[in-house]
Amino acid sequence: MAMAESAGKSVGQLVQEWLAIDKNETTRKEIQDLVSQGATDELDRRLRTRIAFGTAGLRSRMQAGFAHLNDVTIIQASQGLAAYLLSTATDASSATPASVIVGHDHRHNSASFARLTAAAFVLKGIKVYLLDGLVHTPLVPFGVGHLQCLAGVMITASHNPARDNGYKVYWGNGCQIIPPVDAGIAAAIDANLAPAERAWDVDAVLEEGRRRGMVEDVKEQVATAYFGKLREVVSGMTGGGDGEVRFVYTAMHGVGLEPAKQVVEILGLQGGMVIVEEQATPDPDFPTVKFPNPEEKGALDIAMATADRHGITVALANDPDADRFAAAEKVDGKWQILTGNQLGVLFASHMLATSPLPPSKIAMLSSAVSTQMLAAMAALDGFHHEETLTGFKWLGNVAQQITTRGAQTAVYAFEEAIGYMFAAVVHDKDGIAALGVFLTMLRKWQSEGITPVGKLRQLYERYGHFESCNGYVVSPAPMVTKTVFDGIRALGATAGGRHPATLGARKITYWRDLTEGFDSLAANGIPALPVDKSSQMITVGMDGVRFTIRGSGTEPKIKFLTMSDTTDYVEATAADKEVAAQAAREVAGDIVREWFKPEESGLIVS
């Protein structure tokens, strides 16, 4: 049911349409109870519009209604994706059936959503490689390539709250989907909304599929290949260091512990690993954390307390689906949580130091909202650096394009939201690969008598200090977000140009608007990065400061990321750590005060 088709219908008609196709008694009762309560507005909100399919697939609260994630919308998404895959398959005459790989995490309904997904594909004549049991998200994109699938689907909401779930789609190249594929899938979903006759007969469909060779359980096979590839990547990375490394590990109530144990076994570090038992078991309710995201304040408290009890100074974490990685170190008696940017450049320096390729043949990537320190490293050390739009859908696809061109091999990419990609394993963020590489770093540094923070200080001495001040404001509605960004742009007209002339006491020297399509440094004013008028993203450069403001794609937020830095390492003496940090804080305050104006706009400061 497209929005245009539902616009003229009464709530009663929408209710009847829902009840006519939903065979899940729990979600049927949700709608029936709302009808009994006379909750017309809530029914309209849930049924009038449908959950939007985008480059992240689907992600929403699990509840009844076309606007949310449930059995109905999972079936519809799977039928549409299957139809799109068949319409775009290049060799329809092949004797080998088209195939997809499907996996799931431990969240409420994840297993049942995965089975519904698999059955929908089988009913369309597409073979399903099923990762039977709990898996970490990177196993799906790895499996796409390993089994030469047309696509992959992972049922997970990553580090979202317990009430949420998601339907994450990977394309045949093992990367997250990008335009125009997302729009093509969305259109195919709209054209295939009616559940197939046997869509709800999941057990029988899958059992028949196994007998016919259309369903194959492959978790052990794919996991063995994945860890074999990871073993190749970490082999030799320790630089001769072979000592024991002590660290605390938390899976954040997710699926990371078992794959983490395999990584530790590969490296022979079982004796040094202390597990946070309170968070070790997969638990979809995430009972010990407010938000199951290692970036959130307080999320690592139990891990750090566990480390204190054991006299350990390093705490490591994965998020619940283990595609992100976090680390903290106790320095001079105080815990320091390494930022995503700090970890990003530590990994980059290690990849450069341990790669068999000369720097001129290496490419490393970061997204537009991440630190510019990687660019400074590239300028000094001679490797190729490329910046992409936000998200690993861009980092992964661009990395593949670079490697295909042949001049360099893209070995690594990162984003400030604790996401790290090691291209030899998967072209997506991978918290388990990151854990393995970080442990090789710890072992190597330990043999050299330094710690992570000590290594970071060495990098600052070489490339300059890069200090950040990141934050966000909450927007009550998409129109408010648009109004705020339009107001910022309007300041440029007031100043007689394409962008504001100043912010606070600083002069603006660079302006890139990836919504409107303008780059002040481009010869023709056209940005090299893709323009997307449906999203809001502006990057600004000033003397010693660069920042990006953007509307979040998955949350009602406007995020602002300021990076005060010495973009040329030669300026390091003019911008020590405290000077850089103070500048970042000042600019963050100026953004909120002069551009966001929460008292006027209705934005809520976090």
UniProtKB/TrEMBL annotation:
Protein name, per record: Phosphoglucomutase-2
Family: Belongs to the phosphohexose mutase family.
Cofactors (names): Mg(2+)
Top-level taxonomic group: Eukaryota
Any Gene Ontology CC annotation: nucleus
Key words of the record: Carbohydrate metabolism, Cytoplasm, Glucose metabolism, Isomerase, Magnesium, Metal-binding, Phosphoprotein
One MF annotation (Gene Ontology) recorded for this entry: magnesium ion binding
Subcellular location: Cytoplasm
Ranges for domain Alpha-D-phosphohexomutase alpha/beta/alpha: 51-192, 226-329, 340-444
Species of origin: Drechslerella dactyloides
Pfam families: PGM_PMM_I, PGM_PMM_II, PGM_PMM_III
